[in-house]
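Box 4.2: Ligand-aware structure prediction
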Amino acid sequence: MEIGFIGLGNMGAPMARNLAAAGHRVTGFDVSGAAVEGVAKAASAAEAATGREAVITMLPSGAILGSVYAEIVPAAAPGTLMLDCSTVDVASARDAATAATSAGLEPVDAPVSGGTGGASAGTLTFMAGGSEAGFARAVPLFEVMGARSVHCGGPGAGQAAKICNNMVLGISMIGVCEAFALAGKLGLDAAALYEVISTSSGQCWSVTTYCPVPGVGPESPADRDYRPGFAAELMLKDLGLAREAAAASDAATPLGTHAAELYDAFVAGGGRGQDFSAMLPWLAKQGRDG
Ligand code: NAD
């Protein structure tokens, strides 16, 4: 396929490289001037979008997605598959889809989970929103860049699924960190608690796959001085998106709101650049009054 790829950052660069390595002709653009092995360089987003069968975006925010779509929607040929893999707010995703549909393009929002490791290895999970036909056209690209894709519904449904999943993750990681911090103060061995929780009703991904205690459970960022992994500020971004979506739809998400407040305090208090599981040492050094 002839593919335009806009946003060649930590995630976009390895995704574009994998598409090129699989034999697709990829033309990329990033405002930073980033170049990627096997990917031709365009001089603008509009040039990257012109004459392609698919245009993929991997950008930091909904506002940037909107400004990029203002340039690329008029440039893209009718029928082009417009695949946005950025994590953005549901409203921006729906606006981008409406603009693309009005211009006769085929939009699919498809945010990912799996992080930079998954992007490099081509093992991402895609959560997609759009028409059946759009999803079917995107699947061969998902199969190159990822290991799994789920069609969640119409425009914006991919973003909705992503922020709901990450709200669970943020809340569950804080719960797990609180339990291990409490265990430490009670003199309970962390490895013993891991054995119990990982086989009992408290079992969840934050314990069994990503245990925040160094030296306990499978290898995780805790074993690498909490280098990300999934950076705390990205978790804060996703919890902010969940909070916005909850406010816009009048949904009660009290723990999601509290999780966002805690990640906000953690990021502001030195957590920026650390893995989101470094919530554990941050909590462990506090008493009940902070
Ligand atoms: P990043 O900041 O490394 O990359 C974003 C890129 O977009 C940058 O290279 C930037 O120069 C480029 N950019 C900004 N404005 C642009 C414009 N107007 N035109 C062209 N390029 C522009 O971020 P990332 O880690 O690659 O994340 C990208 C998206 O994926 C984000 O929405 C993020 O939330 C999401 N995401 C990231 C991870 C992760 O672990 N890094 C995991 C899942 C999802």
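In the box above, the bound molecule is nicotinamide-adenine-dinucleotide. The beta strands are 2-6, 25-29, 40-41, 54-57, 81-84, 106-109, 112-113, 124-130, 146-153.
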